[in-house]
Amino acid sequence: MPFRASVLTLYPEMFPGPLGVSLAGEGLRRGLWSLETHQIRDHGIGRHRNVDDNPAGGGAGMVLRCDVLGAAIDAAVPAADTRPRLLMSPRGRPLAQRQVREWVAGEGVVIVCGRFEGVDERVIEARGLTEVSIGDYILSGGEMAALVLLDACVRLIPGVMGKELSGEDESFENGLLEYPHYTRPREWEGRGLPEALLSGDHARIAKWRRAEAERITRERRPDLLDPSPLGGEGGSAKR
């Protein structure tokens, strides 16, 4: 069964967006994965299909209602559907490559895209939503974050990428950032290629790439090398 993505949003027109082009789009057209969107407002309250209300206890902004979102989830996701239910949220766990691989190995994901000030906590608890974040910043809504998460998943689906092994040495796959890349010409603006890459010695090349990956990781993301529970595995993020 192909990887299935179900997205609940107030703006279904934002999908597939960039996922409809390049390798992801080709994979979508070939049926290697599927995407369906569900309009949360279809379950809104009253004549104007209201989906939000004032925060209990006062405060700025509006909050997505639990009864509206709960009804939208129930209509879109059968009770027997075992796919993870994710909520894109700035307070969620950081999106990491290891978790992405686990999702891709399954049947797919259900993604809820929040808007406004937040989502009523009761629907998060009642519908078992797992909050996921893509970075320490705030977006206008969860749609862009959902596209990022789906792109990370889709590119790992067998048959989507041009070469099945092309993702194995990428950043975060081995707990390190990726080593530098070079190509033609051999010299450019007085800058040449590293001697190791010209040697033809595969063992030497592999050793150089490993050393460079470790160097860059130490300089830019030392937290990836931290063995403590607080050390990240990559993709340190909030939405």
How are the elements arranged and paired?
Elements: E1 3-9, H1 22-29, E2 33-39, E3 52-53, E4 63-64, H2 66-76, E5 85-94, H3 97-104, E6 108-113, E7 118-119, H4 121-126, E8 130-133, H5 143-154, E9 187-188, E10 191-192, H6 195-198, H7 202-220
Parallel strand pairs: 1-2, 1-6, 4-7, 5-6, 5-8
Antiparallel strand pairs: 3-4, 9-10
Helix pairs in contact: 3-5
How would you describe this structure in keywords?
5-stranded parallel β-sheet, 239 residues, alpha/beta, elongated, 28% helix, 3-stranded mixed β-sheet
Structural write-up:
This protein is α/β, with parallel strands linked by helices and 239 residues long. The chain has seven helices and ten strands. The strands form three sheets. Strands 2-1-6-5-8 form a five-stranded parallel sheet, sandwiched between helices. A three-stranded mixed sheet has the order 3-4-7. Strands 9-10 form a two-stranded antiparallel ribbon. The chain is elongated, with a radius of gyration of 21 Å. The two termini are 30 Å apart.
Could you give a quick summary of the protein structure above?
This protein has 239 residues and is of the alpha/beta class. It contains seven helices and ten strands.
Count up the helices.
Answer: 7
Rg over CA atoms:
21 Å
Terminal-residue CA separation: 30 Å
Let me know the number of strands. 10
Main pleated-sheet profile? 5 strands, parallel
Extract low-pLDDT stretches: 229-239
Sequence of secondary-structure elements: EHEEEHEHEEHEHEEHH
Average pLDDT: 92
What portion of residues is helical? 25-40%
Shape: elongated
